[in-house]
Design a protein that fits this description.
homodimer; Beta-Lactamase; two-stranded antiparallel ribbon; 19% strand; DNA-binding
DNA sequence: TGACTTTTGTTCGTATATCGCACAATATCG
DNA sequence: CGATATTGTGCGATATACGAACAAAAGTCA
């Protein structure tokens, strides 16, 4: 690609949109400039453009995103067949297990939920398609990272802020790499309250008919209800069953 | 706003992202140019920019969006407090009713799901936050349109493609306006299989403590399970209860 | 309160990058 | 293989980004 085939104004604008997130529903021009590391004048133009197009509101001081930006993200969910294919399988799985079932893909250092069948809400976090969690401490993340060449997994870990969400969280890169090997060998990953106290989950990889890893699915359950050890005996067969069914329909 | 405060390269790029959707998971440069009505060279630069940034994949012929674009849309869901505030109320509502409960806002001619507590999947369509439905034939859409000044509602209807999804769908603008008046008077809207055969739903408006309409919530149920008439007696009290609870916590 | 400092928003001229056109190259198909 | 459609490229005209300077608030402290 040539230098001139890159629209930097567009790239800058996308960076500005991403500056809104988690902790930043309202951004002043200066806030956004700091977060994006762009010039204030440039950020201002991007924000005014967003406002003009209806993607943002402006009260003269702060900018806020409008629901219209969901059109952008949703273009993916609507356009890609994967979530739609997975959904009914997750529904079935969730029903049989009596617990929430989800599917995710890897995006950088995070896993990204692309479909979910939720039973009762047990986590403090509200997960929906589009939600993200750090890969290193999530069961689906372990499975997805384990499916990568070890060098790539290391690179991703190096870029991750490995923080201990609970006392049980593994934060040592070497320990994680060892865990990935175990996951690869046994074909599933179990997380015992590493993300949130009281929450266990088990995940298996989803491959297409050519054996290429494309996603992961999991079942999450309250630790009070199912111990980490029980997760395997109780839910692994169901996950394997879904995994096998999906391998046949995914190209 | 001055002419020069608008970054057209950014606006064009966003238009290109939106070209992906529903029926368009894979777009060639020419496809995208036709859909966006932009010059091929321009679209090509935008697409290559998206690919360079990891928002799209390019196989030399077709572009596809990657999950990364969900970051953009999700910036809204993560940044705005409304979905997070609504979610637990919808969970409760859904549990009490034993049916799916959702919340949406109006975006142009469509309603946009911002939160959802789903029970079993009864619709052929898979709805998640970010999903859209035409406003004129959805219960929440009726409520949201009924909350607008009649002139605005007419304008939106004029921009809508009023198609009969089922034999029961109301497609006559005047009939719809009359229905909006009824909805406004009675404080709720019922849809009897206008969107999809076999599906009924009932919606109420959600106002903040200043009485300003900001969203709508609904309950959907299979027509086989609950007739349209039963929807009111069975679910309206629950919806009213949630509506009252939300009025107290929304500013 | 009022003068001073700091932060934030806006404007402007200019160097530079992007747009869109026309043409060239390549792929697709009968 | 020729016809048609699609994609890639060079170039002049135009629009945008940059950085600094200015204006306007907001904060600070005596």
């Amino acid at each position: 690609m040539r230098e001139t085939d890159f629209v930097s104004g567009f790239a800058r604008g996308l960076k500005v949109i991403e500056a809104f997130g988690e902790m930043h529903q309202r951004l002043s021009i200066t806030d956004a400039a700091k977060l994006t590391d762009l010039d204030r004048a440039t950020v201002r133009r991007s924000l005014l453009t967003l406002a003009e197009l209806g993607y943002a509101d402006y009260d003269g001081k702060f900018f806020t995103l409008t629901p219209k930006v969901l059109r952008l993200g949703h273009a993916y969910l609507a356009a890609t067949p994967l979530p739609a294919i997975l959904q009914p399988h997750l529904d079935q799985l969730s029903e049989k297990a009596g617990q929430s079932a989800s599917a995710s893909v890897l995006d950088g250092t995070e896993i990204l939920y692309i479909a979910r069948a939720s039973q009762r809400r047990v986590m403090s976090i509200n997960l929906t398609p589009g939600s993200r969690l750090p890969a290193y401490c999530a069961s689906m993340g372990r499975v997805l990272l384990a499916g990568l060449p070890e060098g790539e997994a290391r690179t991703i870990l190096a870029r991750t802020e490995l923080k201990a969400n609970t006392p049980r969280t593994i934060t040592d890169p070497e320990e994680l790499i060892a865990e990935f090997r175990r996951v690869r060998a046994q074909g599933y990953a179990v997380i015992d309250q590493e993300l949130e106290l009281g929450l266990c989950s088990i995940a298996v990889p989803i491959e297409n008919d050519r054996g290429h890893l494309i996603a992961a699915i999991n079942i999450g359950a309250p630790a009070a209800h199912t111990s980490a050890a029980e997760m395997v005996t109780r839910y692994l067969p169901l996950l394997k069953e879904t995994q096998a069914a999906l391998r046949l329909v995914l190209r």
